[in-house]
Amino acid sequence: MEVDNYRKIRLRLTTIFVVLITAPLAILVVMTTNSLRETAIEKIEVSLARLIEHKMDVVSLFLKEKEDLLHMMVGMYPISYLGRQENLDDLFIAVNKTGSIVDLHVIDSSGRQLAYTGPYASSLEGKNYYDAPWFQHVLIKGSHVSDVFLGFRNVPHFVVAVADPLKTYILRATINSEQFNKLLLSTQIGPHGDSFIVNRDGRLQTPSRAGITELSDEDRLLLAPHEGTAVFQRQEEIVPKTQELGQVDLPGATAIVKRQESVVATRWVKDGEWCIIVKALIEDSLDPFYALRNKIIMVIVITSAIFLTLALLFTNYLLRRIAEEDRQRAELGHQMMQMEKMATVGRLAAGIAHEINNPLQMITSQAGWIGELLPEEDRLQVRNIAEYEKAVEQIKHHVRRAGTITHRLLGFSRKISTEQQNVDINELMEETVSFIEREAQYNNVTIVRNYSPSLTTTMTDGPQLQQVFLNLINNAIDEIGPGGVIELTTAMEKEKSIRIDIADNGHGIKPENLKKIFDPFFTTKAPGKGTGLGLYISYDIVKKLGGTISVANRNSGGAVFTIVLPVIDHG
Amino acid sequence: MREFNVLVVDDEEEFRELTAKRLEKRGLKVKTAESGEKALEILEHSHTDVVLLDVKMPGIDGIETLRRIRAMKPLVEVVLLTGHASVDSGIEGMKLGAFDYLMKPIDLEPLLEKLSDANEKKRLHQAKIEQAEIRRNMSMPS
User: Fold this and answer.
1) Which of A120, A226, A498, A506 gets the highest tally of CB atoms within 10 A of its CB?
2) Could you report the predicted ipTM of this complex, rounded to two decimals?
3) What is the value of pTM for the model shown?
4) B window 109-128, beta carbon within 8 A of A
């Protein structure tokens, strides 16, 4: 029952400690890792914004360079010069050092091709472009850059067309876009990131690193106004500014959309015709975050472990204290009960002894009276007179026997002498042993002495105490029988008292007898062998000397009687 | 054995009468009293050498009776006898000047011995006082 209680308390305390320690730390872990993740994602956004800005510059620059080149040429040469095939050939060789220009057309304002330099001369001969949309566009706006297409050779390229200022003719160049594809491919975040350019219809203008050929439905949404973060890098440095986006496809703004597993940045270039899309997988960039998070978790786990260990140790300590206190309280209660019981039993026994003494007196008096009168009888007439005389003597003898018991019980035979002397307990014990050593040897019982040499003397009644020692040692000798060992131990205890242990290695005392062993008339000896008063008298003497006597069974077998006497040093 | 006067004080009649009978048979002169008050009364009006006094009695108890006897007749010796009293009352009685302290049950012989001793003490005591008086009378002749 009690053990159960301790288990309950332990469980409760442990639970409380675990919750108190673990819960805040767990919350800390969750909050820290979440915010760390947020920070990591924000970093991705910033670098994405930077990257896409850079790409935009690259693409814009590339396109502008080609456009400018054509503008320069149409500004420099009139139609009469460029319309001639040999002049165009010269020019093509002069400008196409990098190899990015595939071919050059010169087309007059009616759509007729005047000259062509390039690999497809035969198939394009005499073609009229007047109805082509790009042609009209150039005539109206002065220049045009087409979407990317694969063409005959399966090489991605696009067309740049420019009209001369007077719109008399158009110079058209086919440009191999692989050059800026390379630039685009080299710039991406993480091994699983992706980057490509699409046109307004969502067709890919550059190859995707991830190998997609068509925009997914989700990505297609990016081309329409959508929710996200707008970064106006030009105006506000690199600080991402969160705002509700309805118009992220405004020129000059990078739109960043955060998805479950990725962050996508979009940026319109080429006057809103092309959209650069850069994707970064969040997972790719989280390695440093994971490392940091693991470190934090480790620190917190170690901390919790330390705290938990301390808490458990504390719980153990607390429980041990509680158990110890319970035990002491129980022991104290037991002692109080024992004392009370002994007092009651003592009073009862004394009362009975008193009441018996008077009848005993009358019995012995009456018997004595008979004994006195008998000699006056006529010996011849009373035939059994000798028997009567013998009976009278027997009656007196048995009354004396009974009287001895009642006297012992009442303590008549053990008046506490008013004179107490300074007694050395070790000496007293040794003297006691000398009385019974012969009997012990006869019974083949060994007596082991563990006397403390530092024992102080105390004012007490030596002969009475010796009576107690004698009772206890005699009992022990009777109990263990041949081959037994009796250990006599003396020691100082808590400065102010002397502890005397008289232990044997016999069969011990049955638990049910432990409580009544000091009761008067309690005996386990054979009928007629013991009065059952020895321990009661010992108890009474020790109590009168201000000490305590207790008994316990030893773990190693046998019983131990413990007397604790106060050290009294006055006088 | 010298003949002397004994007063047996005990609330138990049977004991009183029987003890008286047996002591008289041994040649003593015995009076009895069933209480302390009665004992004091008898002491006042008759010659008594030794009182055998029970400690526990209704009315004034043995110890109190002893105290009054010592005050009234300092020469009379008192032997306490009890089946009831504790060690403490025995010590108390001895302090008050009782000759001795006996426990019931007791045989007649040791009892008689104690009474004789008490009487002897009383007799010696008395003789000393008489001698002292004689010496005083002689040193101060009228």
Assistant:
1) A498
2) 0.87
3) 0.49
4) none
